Amino acid sequence: MKRGDDPRRAAEPVTAMKPEELLKLIAGARGDAICVPTMTTAPEWRDIAPDDLSISCVGFMGGASSLGLGLALANPKRRVIVFDGDGSLLMQLGSLATIAGARPRNLTHLLFKNGVYHTSGAQNIPGGFDVDFVLMAKGAGYRTAYAIHEMDEFKRRLPSLFRDEGPLFVELHTGLADKTPMTARGGTPFPDQVEHLRKKLTG
Amino acid sequence: MPESVPASLILDAYKEIFREARGGRPSEPLGWVLSVPDTHQKSVLAALDKERALRTLTCATEDEANAIAAGLWIGGEPCILMIQHAGLYASINTLRGVAIDGKVPIFYMIGLLQRERDKDPRDSRHSMVRWCEPLLDTFGVPHARLEGPDDVHLIAKYFKLSRERRGPAAVLVGLETM
User: Fold this and answer.
1) Do A98 and B75 count as a contact with CB atoms less than 8 A apart?
2) Helix (H, G, I), strand (E, B) or coil at B138
3) What ipTM does the predicted assembly reach?
4) Which of A74, A92, A95 sits opposite B76 (nearest CB)?
């Protein structure tokens, strides 16, 4: 789907950021943070960071934020970064309140907002691009929540994304990724990722 | 006939399980209880509110609780999920994806709300009670019944089983705890 073809996506900015560029910048700034990609960020992330402290949310769509919360609670001295999707977050929207209630200071919740279920054919999410997740995160009780629309702003704020106290929510206005889990299959099976990360974290 | 189990016995069992899971090493918290509140186990939840050694996290859904449990497991933290049979039905796909396919050991305490004292759960006139064990059987989840104080040892047994099998295991709380 081309940007602007669908009138229901009229609110989507034409200057939307490329998710691949965002991920590369994140990879350079994350330090030793644990990363939890899901859906369309997962294929690119495994190319960028193939053998490190990452685990993809695979097989239980919507679970990335909760998986990230568990990791953050278990590893309070290490930053945990969730790469969520808007369609994914809608599947477990209550996790915003659960995360806010748990108040993990080390959790950064990044929402790659593209307005569609890209993996299944780019159908609009309920409400399309107009859904205001920042308002929801603030209402749930996140310590900080804001949106980033342009790359220059993202670069400027990047260091603070992984330094500021959490729970921190950032809605990233992006275009569609080049790859999806359907067009770029493969990667390490989820149970092997579990085992790998557990060994790294617990020795 | 089944009997209600005192909350204090269940909490003592949790503490012992967590101590053993940590190999006796002191820790703060000792372990985690992830709960989607369940009427059937409300006396345990009330006791947990006053318990300093355990940290209780109330989750909005059982789906969340499963995924949080996975994160805790990966990070080396022991936890127990307390849910209701309705929540098991609601979250069965996440249980499949995380605990079965993902091979994450997750132990569930499942309240059988409306279970009749004089009936086997499989003969209950309430579908939520009647189908709980068959559903667990279908997914190959080992389970046991907590039918009275003498069964409290099953909590530790099935917690360990979840770890040995690297998957889900459950104890079904027969009558409302007291």
Assistant:
1) no
2) helix
3) 0.97
4) A74
The domains of chain A, with CATH numbers, are 7-202 (3.40.50.970)
pTM above 0.90, yes or no: yes
Question: Under 8 Å CB-to-CB from A132, ≥6 apart: which residues?
Answer: none
Task: Specify the fold of B7-173.
Answer: Rossmann fold (3.40.50)
Region for A121 from its dihedrals, namely left if φ exceeds 0, alpha if ψ lies in -120 to 50, beta otherwise: left
Residue among A57, A92, A202 whose CB faces B76 most closely: A202
pLDDT of residue A4 exceeding 90, the answer is no
What's the mean pLDDT when you consider all of chain A? 91
Residue of chain A whose Cα is closest to the Cα of B76: A202
User: A74–B66: do the CB atoms touch at under 8 Å?
Assistant: no
* Residues of chain B with C-beta less than 8 angstroms from the C-beta of A65: 67
Q: For residues B56-73, give the mean pLDDT.
A: 98
pLDDT digit string (tens) for A135-145?
Answer: 999 999 999 99
Structural domain boundaries in chain B: 7-173
